[in-house]
Write a structure and sequence with these properties.
Helices cover about 45% and strands about 15% of the residues. By secondary structure, it is of the alpha/beta class. α2 packs parallel to α8, α5 crosses α6 and α7 packs parallel to α8.
């Protein structure tokens, strides 16, 4: 048996060593070549944000009460505050000028489904379609794509969470519910509830009602007196860590 010895001084040996060295360098420099894929992040419902910032977010779900929306927007503007309007897609289609005004005023536009159907009854594909249809409508009107989703009725399960994630959305709930849709919820009840439970990172839930129009300026003034900055939900999410407890 004969073995052929290749001299390191030969051109062939030097070429082989050079190719090996280049491949090794590429492997070391580019982590994609040797890193394992990270597992997907499990979606969570966001009820509040843990933050050291003295900030809160006001959210207003809109699929009815259209006559009160301009009044709420005017109060926000008068008090130099912003809110996040979670709009239904069908409502946005019917009231494009109000959606445009929300964007112009600096308020955030979120997604509240197309026509307020129960998310738990739609299945994965149905929820993705419902969310995507609303996003497309808002984007066509206001040239901005929503990134947060407030499920109708505050209803969700793991399928809804997975669908929201697949649609590129963060599912947002609330910390403080004014229950303003209930006729027995007085203006003083709403104001006192929000101010008593206010904490950094809280998310307040409201709707367009006549009582909310009266309560909103008092809520804003009270929170501002306590030193709270009122920001959009997306701004609040950037200030800390989302939490699933209210």
């Amino acid at each position: 048996m004969h073995f052929r010895v290749i001299s390191l001084r030969s051109p062939m040996a030097r070429l082989v060593l050079l190719v090996f060295a280049l491949l090794l360098a590429a492997w070391l420099i580019n982590p994609r070549l040797h890193a394992t894929a990270a597992p997907p992040t499990r979606p969570i419902p966001v009820y509040r944000v843990e933050t050291i910032k003295t900030a809160m977010a006001l959210t207003i779900n809109v699929v009815w009460g259209t006559e009160y929306v301009p009044k709420l927007m005017a109060e926000l503007k008068a008090h130099h505050a912003v809110a996040t309007f979670m709009v239904g897609g069908a409502w946005a289609e019917a009231h494009p000028e109000l959606v445009k005004q929300m964007r112009q005023d600096g308020d955030q536009i979120g997604n509240h489904g197309w026509n307020h159907r129960h998310p738990n009854q739609l299945g994965f594909d149905g929820n993705v379609q419902d969310i995507t249809r609303t996003n497309r409508m808002v984007e066509a009107i206001a040239q901005v794509r929503p990134t947060i989703y407030a499920p109708p009725y505050g209803e969700f399960n793991q399928t809804v969470l997975n669908a929201a994630q697949a649609a590129g959305m963060t599912l947002v709930m609330w910390t403080i519910d004014t229950i303003d849709w209930r006729p027995s919820s007085s203006v003083s009840y709403m104001v006192n509830k929000v101010l008593a439970r206010a904490q950094a990172g809280s998310i307040v839930l409201m709707h367009p009602t006549d009582r909310t129009v009266l309560a909103l300026p008092q809520i804003i003034a009270g929170l501002q007196q306590k030193g709270y900055q009122l920001v959009t939900v997306s701004q609040l999410l950037k200030m800390g860590t989302p939490r699933t407890d209210s």
